[in-house]
Amino acid sequence: MKVSISIGAYNRVDILGLVDYIQQAEKLGVTYAWSAEAWGHDAVTTLGYLGALTDKIILGTGIMQISARTPSMTAMTALSLDNLTNGRFILGLGVSGPQVVEGLQGVSYKAPLGRLRETVDIIRMGFRGEKLRYEGKHFVLPLPDGEGKAIRLDHQPKDIPIYLATLGPKSLEYTGAAADGWLGTSFSPDHAEAHMDHLRKGAADAGRSLTDMDLHASCNVSVGENVQELIDAYKPGVAFSMGAMGSEKTNFYNDAFKRAGYTDDALAIQRLWIDGKRQEAAERVPDEMVTEFGAVGTPDMVRKRFETYRDAGINALTMRMDSNLEISQRIENLEQIMDLLPDRD
């Protein structure tokens, strides 16, 4: 099982310390580092910087929001990062949600899956070195009735892997059919079918299998003897996902927990959060919405959870630790976590 770490909120942390964390992770055998993109920092700048300061670790965007850039610019950015990292780049894409897309980017969120499909089509045309001539429902290149012409990107053709961060059933099917990898969130190996059934269907419909792609899943990890204290520390984050990671109408994280059997809990937590009762929302989170969606507990408990992820078909875990920890503590925790992973020498 391979290991990933996340790079996020670098505007709020010691950037030099973060670099040390990534470099130490590389020495410990971490395979991937994914840069986050939300509403305070982008997913690209970090990787361009880290590309010069690392040697082996694979650097990926986790994720680039498709509505923040045109498909052609996304392709150019990916090719640039591939150059800067000496071929160690993975393009991770996602549709984000309506609050960010319409509120921050100022573009319509309608038809996110259709826009994702067309975005990937155009990006791959650019990677193959073809002239960008495309006629879709959402994107038309070159723009008709204008002075534009089909342009080939000024790069050598390159096969850069595209990983998709998807949660909805149809989007998961598309991922299974077309992506090189999946960046999964809100995934529980105890309820793997909530995601895997859709990925598998998409792969089968395209004449593929799940072994044709990398399956990554984010995993909240905390190791210690006071298990209840560790669980309680993650509940505010779960409440945030249920109530704030999307609108009341459109929240893919909330929907994923519903498909895993937590409909009543997810809706109740969301209602409390929207009503401004955030402490109550966190208190409403049952322990299982933490323990079944991560690896929290004693070393033996965490080791067994990692095995459960592996047995569910996940071949890479993105370790999510407390972002408030000092860099030295994060490195120490990562060393301990690496020793608990299955299938390692």
Brief summary of the model shown:
This protein has 345 residues and is of the alpha/beta class. It has 14 helices and twelve strands. The protein has a single domain (2-339), classed as TIM Barrel (Alpha-Beta Barrel).
Task: Please tell me about this protein's structure.
The protein has 345 residues and is an alpha/beta fold. The protein has a single domain (2-339), classed as Luciferase-like domain (TIM Barrel, Alpha-Beta Barrel), CATH 3.20.20.30. Helix content is 46%, strand content 15%. The strands form two sheets. The protein has an eight-stranded parallel barrel with strand order 1-2-3-5-8-9-10-12, surrounded by six helices. Strand 1 (2-7), helix 1 and strand 2 (32-35) form a beta-alpha-beta unit. It is globular and about 65 Å long. The termini are close together. 43% of the residues are buried. The model has no long low-confidence stretch (mean pLDDT 94).
